[in-house]
Amino acid sequence: MWLAKTPLDIFSASFSLPFCEWSLKRRQQNGHRFYPDPAPPVATIVFTQSEPLQMDNTGMKRGIVIKDDWPGYSLDLFTYPEHYHEDIENVYIPHGVIMNRTERLARYIMEDFGDNNIMVLCVLKGGYKFCADLVEFIKVFGRNSNKYLETRVEFIRLKSYLNDQSTEDLHIIGSRDLSFLRGKCVLIVEAIVDTGKTMKALLKHVETFEPKMVKVAGLLVKRVPNMAERLTDYVGFEIPNRFVVGYALDYNEYFRDLNHICVISKTGKMKYKV
Ligand code: HPA
Ligand code: MG
């Protein structure tokens, strides 16, 4: 901070302030683009971190908390497929933020798994992008630290949503036989966990195959009433109870080709309803 120390300082400050204004006017007259007031912000970020990070990763249980009043970013600020122009309200979590957060989660996972190889169980279809990016970051960390872990990826397909409503049961599409998990250190990778019912049922099913260890990575966890106990060990973002699409999350199979996570508009819901 500037402080006047001598009478000369006070004199020069009282001279220089009007001089600045005069100089500004001159520059504007001469056609300079000059902004005397700061331009209004294009967006205000209200992401908050839940808790200080702790060595045992318990601070990971909520991830980055996005508050209920987060309005998202205006669509004008980002690029997205033109065909979804009327179908999304805002960019809720930009793709770049998702990527960086995923990189961070990869680091936690590496630390926790130690020297154990990772058997990844990717929950399709919504989890395919998060899983691919997460595994890629794990591989990069391995290369950069000379600590190569073998990562195997298997897939399980679940379906529990019609339109934007959860259906009750765990529907495994395809084989229920997960015997390849026996004795392995398993990382279940899911894009979104909301009521936790599906994840609870899946965990119970996975446990029957006697893995050595099971952890869950969820990019998004929804803040819903009567939330089941926190089943997700590595959380990207805790979000309000809103229906979001993009980054492989769908609404009746649409929007998987959108890179950002966005809030669907009324028009979008009507257009793709079944
Ligand atoms: N979007 C897409 N799929 C989902 C959601 C959601 O908000 N919640 C559970 N499955
Ligand atoms: Mg879905």
TrEMBL record:
UniProt keyword Nucleotide-binding present: yes
Query: Domain Phosphoribosyltransferase spans what residues?
Result: 101-251
Q: What is its EC number?
A: 2.4.2.8
Q: In which pathway does it act?
A: Purine metabolism; IMP biosynthesis via salvage pathway; IMP from hypoxanthine: step 1/1
Catalytic activity, as annotated: IMP + diphosphate = hypoxanthine + 5-phospho-alpha-D-ribose 1-diphosphate
Query: What are the GO cellular component annotations?
Result: cytosol
Q: What class of enzyme is it?
A: transferase
Q: Which InterPro entries match?
A: HGPRT (IPR050408), Hxn_phspho_trans (IPR005904), PRTase-like (IPR029057), PRTase_dom (IPR000836)
Gene Ontology molecular function: any one:
magnesium ion binding
Compartment list: Cytoplasm
Top-level lineage group: Eukaryota
Cofactor dependence = Mg(2+)
Keywords, comma-separated and alphabetical: Cytoplasm, Glycosyltransferase, Magnesium, Metal-binding, Nucleotide-binding, Purine salvage, Transferase
Q: Which GO terms describe its biological process?
A: GMP salvage; guanine salvage; hypoxanthine metabolic process; IMP salvage; purine ribonucleoside salvage
Checking NCBIfam families in the record gives:
HGPRTase
Q: What is this protein called?
A: Hypoxanthine phosphoribosyltransferase
Source organism (scientific name): Lates calcarifer (Barramundi)
The organism that produces this protein has a lineage beginning with: Eukaryota, Metazoa, Chordata, Craniata, Vertebrata
Q: Which gene encodes it?
A: prtfdc1a
